[in-house]
Amino acid sequence: MDFVRAMFVSALLFATSLSAMAQGGGGASFDALLNSAEKYRSSDSSRFTALLAEMESRKKEASAAQLQRYDYLRAYEAVVYKDEIKAGIETARRLFEGDAEPTLKFRAGSLVANAAALNRDFTTGLRYLERSLEIRNSVRSKVVRHEGLGAAAVIYNQMGQHEIALRYAKEILKDSPSARIRCGVSHARLSSEFALSRVSDSNEGISRIIQQCAEAKEPIGANLVRIILAKKLAKEQKLQDALALMDGALQEVESTKYPWLIADFRAVLSELKFDAGDFAAAEAHANEAVSYGKQVASSAALVTAYRTLYRIQANKEKGTVALELYKRYAESQMAHQSDVKARELAYEIVRHETQQKNKEIELLQAQQRLERENTQKAQLTTLFLAILLAGIVFWAFQIKRHQQQLKKLAQTDSLTGLGNRHYFTQKSERALVDAARAGEPASLVMFDLDHFKAINDTYGHGAGDWVLKQVGKTCSAHCRKVDYIGRIGGEEFAVLLRGIDLAGASRLAEDCRAQLAQIDTRDCGYSFVVTGSFGVSSTAQSGYDLSRLLSHADQMLYRAKNEGRNRVCAYTTEAAADHRSARRSPSLSVVNR
């Protein structure tokens, strides 16, 4: 499941029984409504919404402080129940930046941090988290402080900093939190430990956490923990226990009406059903998860659901349908991986900003001390300013260098060192525009490795990764500086060749194909042959549109697979006609790439 997304839900559900903030005047009835809304905001969404509606009609009775609390609850409703995250963020941001008292300001900042991360604005989330934690010593309520620390645990889990998140979660648990906060933070702790592959609880211990969440009337938290337990049971080869756990809770999950939880739950359940051989149920659950696609974009739930649907169709030997589902699976996986990289990038950006801020504070403090101690020493003051300026220039240079490194990280496939799909597409489109303007030919070579899944299955993913690196090095050696080579899929690569026609590109592809077969795999500890199938297209036949060049090259790659693999097929008028004829032939078997 999408653990990090689920952890944000846990953080938003932490504090539900905050003590009332005393209000003066005749607003006691409105204050009672506020306290009731606080009580039910995470355990009974219908009652919570009804209370807010009643307060909306009675806002004239409220004091300024009561209206601020009401605005916070409205922001919470927008984020958690209405999927109006931007509106919720804006309301909570105004509270944080305004004149609200410290406790409400702290809660608003925590809500902004969580909601921004839910909206995939991870940089803003981290910034508001840090600003909120700076004022936590002004907050007397232990529950509210737990909210802030819980948000820190959640967001650091989201950033992949699970050790830091685990430290915050344990700090809360040692401080005797309320039952509802214990439910949320227990999920944050389990998520950290699951990501680190060291869950400390037994299955019975996790079941007790689920029971505690249920007793605290926290169905969302209970089922988030239940998913972790089901995954753990499946890893322990206790598939039937995992299925019983999930099937028994499905109705409760649906009753929450929370899209991310339902999609995650259904996706995991589809995978378990597939493993149990119940393909019909697996397909039904996967389709239910996919139906939430727009609401859970770039989530691991979509990746899991599409993978299950693809495996079902492949098992039924429905090649065309399976191929289409595999493409959707690959697209959802790439979107999810891009999202993960965005979180990592946001963490690095804010970390560097924090370092810069701390340095600036240190420099400023040093300046103030020096000015107090040396008010009569103008020369020392001048020297200090020179050092300060040099320090600022140095850190500006450092920040610029780190930004360039992060930009390169966002453009590069971390395994092979080649350009990733986004970078390859961006550079290739610009190169085609320049080639068209200059009247130069250009060609595109697309290839993927034959039977690569068998390599992973037989020799392990370590050997598969080694092969991908060697393939990248081998084919890069045949490229010029003006060419662009990228890894555009799992074992799929593409090369854009400017100034080279179809014949020249086919020769280069043939050279690469021959070199792949010469790779000595004994260095990875096993002996096997690496081969690839190549498709070639050129602007002479396909024009200067990258998507058309990719489509035609992909058709020829598909043809190379059908003709026996380990070969090069170039896109010509005759080849295109043959390919269309072969695709229409009912006797053609679908090749698994």
Task: Tell me what the structure shows.
- Residues 440-573 form the GGDEF domain.
- The chain crosses the membrane at residues 378-397.
- Residues 347-383 form a coiled coil.
- This is diguanylate cyclase.
- The chain has helices at residues 3-12, 28-40, 45-57, 64-80, 85-97, 102-118, 122-134, 142-158, 162-173, 179-195, 203-215, 219-235, 239-256, 259-275, 279-290, 300-315, 319-373, 378-411, 421-438, 452-459, 461-476, 502-517, 539-542, 546-562, 573-584; strands spanning 442-449, 484-487, 492-498, 532-538, 568-570.
- The chain is mostly helical.
- Mean pLDDT is 85; it is low at 1-7, 14-28 and 586-593.
Descriptive key words:
transmembrane, Serine Threonine Protein Phosphatase 5, Tetratricopeptide repeat, single chain, TPR-like_helical_dom_sf, EC 2.7.7.65, mainly alpha, 593 residues, Alpha-Beta Plaits, coiled coil, five-stranded mixed beta sheet
Distance between the termini: 27 Å
Q: Tell me the name of the CATH homologous superfamily of the largest domain.
A: Tetratricopeptide repeat domain
How many DSSP-defined strands?
5
| CATH architecture designation of the largest domain | Alpha Horseshoe
Q: What's the number of domains?
A: 3
N to C succession of SSEs = HHHHHHHHHHHHHHHHHHHEHHEEHEHHEH
Quickly count the helices.
25
Strand percent estimate: under 5%
- Assign the CATH topology of the largest domain: Serine Threonine Protein Phosphatase 5, Tetratricopeptide repeat
Radius of gyration: 29 Å
The biggest beta sheet is recorded as: 5 strands, mixed
Shape from CA axes? globular
- Average residue-wise pLDDT: 85
Strand order of the largest sheet: 2-3-1-4-5
Helix content: 55-70%
Low-pLDDT residue spans: 1-7, 14-28, 586-593
Tell me, what is the CATH class of the largest domain? Answer: Mainly Alpha
Helix-and-strand structural type: mainly alpha
Protein name: diguanylate cyclase
Organism: Lysobacter brunescens
Catalytic activity: 2 GTP = 3',3'-c-di-GMP + 2 diphosphate
Pfam family, one: GGDEF
